[in-house]
Amino acid sequence: GSAQYIMSYIMSAVNNTKFNSAVFLLTGFPGEEDVHLWISIPFCLMYVISIVGNSVILFIIKTDPSLHEPMYIFLSMLAITDLVLSISTMPTTLGIFLFNSREISLNACFAQLFFIHLLQCIESSVLLLMAFDRFIAIRNPLRYASILTLPRIGKMGLVCVLRGVAVNLPLPFLLQEFQYCQSNVLSHCYCINQDVMKMACSDIRVNSIYGLSIALLTVGLDSLLIFLSYVMILKTVLSITTQVECLRALNTCISHLCAVLLFYMPMIGLSMIHRFGEGSSHLLQILLGYVYLLIPPLMNPIVYSVKSKHLRERIIRVFIK
């Protein structure tokens, strides 16, 4: 009996170590593996455009002293966040489509997950700061430069980063406590908390509540405050007498509004599907997953370059030289 007990003890120990040094399998487009190489072409293009676009914006804002205004400094914060976000999802995404390498170790997965959630949180904060910037520019144009001084903007940026780190740092540690013994196939080509915690065969209630609380306290709160700042902007704009000035003031907000919609819509959609959409189509989940992380870094530089005449002229000048 004792020999049997020792054997079963050893087996359970082996199984436990096997589960916790396990790997996760990432998913590209299931069933379309034979065309993954073709699918990689638009993905490579998206990454190249995102990285080049955001780098160009950063370069131009840094080298042109006339762009050292609050609006453009916030835009450069957005560009840095988008740039790092693209780089943090690129290895696993292109790994799947180019080399069909689906395995990712638990620690690499937790690290990627932390960076994705951190950068999303920072991006949400930066979009809020940009809404605040537009509000002050329209509400109090004469005091704009004295309210948003460079040191103050620097402190705001630091608060965004610290807030992101503080709320997201527990995520990988909470996930490390779990045993992973179910099918370890993730539903995206990168790791996110909602997806990884479903793989655990432990009680994930604490993690689920914590993840939802973070989402509400960061992205939820930011989007509410952005909405309120636009209500105030509209109120101010409608009190402007001439229609031309009214439209000019609103025009300065269009690129920011596009950035807000590009960021929040897919994020809310994906979060809803993960939490409540058990019967939703798998393809929709996968497509939303790509839109959620690839489209904002790709579109933000394009939207801002198209909408900001000043920035557009500088970009053209750099390339024509």
Automatic annotation (TrEMBL):
The chain crosses the membrane at residues 35-61, 73-98, 110-132, 153-175, 209-233, 254-277, 283-304. Keywords: Cell membrane, G-protein coupled receptor, Membrane, Olfaction, Receptor, Sensory transduction, Transducer, Transmembrane, Transmembrane helix. Pfam families: 7tm_4. One of its GO terms (biological process) is cellular response to lipid. One of its GO terms (cellular component) is plasma membrane. It is found in: Cell membrane; Membrane. Belongs to the G-protein coupled receptor 1 family. This is Olfactory receptor. It comes from Gopherus evgoodei (Goodes thornscrub tortoise). The gene is LOC115645524.
